[in-house]
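Quick note —
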Amino acid sequence: MSRNLTAYRVMATVVGVLLVVLILIGVPLANFDGSSMWGIFDSTPAWVTAGSDVNQLGETITTYLGVAHGWLYMIFLVSAFLLSRRAGWSLPFTLVTLVCGTVPILSFWAEHRATRRVRAEHPELA
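Predicted structure written out below.
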């Protein structure tokens, strides 16, 4: 089970970091061009113009990290599910752990919570 826990922790961290960079850096830079955003904001900061180097960086981040995050998230789901079966987690705990991987920052809390539970229930891993 130690390998399952390590694989889960690595994937949770990698997916969490990619999601934070994607959502908090890539998406804003790709969409900040002075126009309205998502029908919520009247205008985005005009310091990033469409087609500028900063805007292109945002586009590159969202394109490549978006794809990488998607594929790595699938590996995260498999590693989390395998750990949940080996550790004997309940279905609600498993589902919360899997869903939290989709929310920036919250994924780190879920990883900490799952690791703490595995180590408490399986002291041989501590």
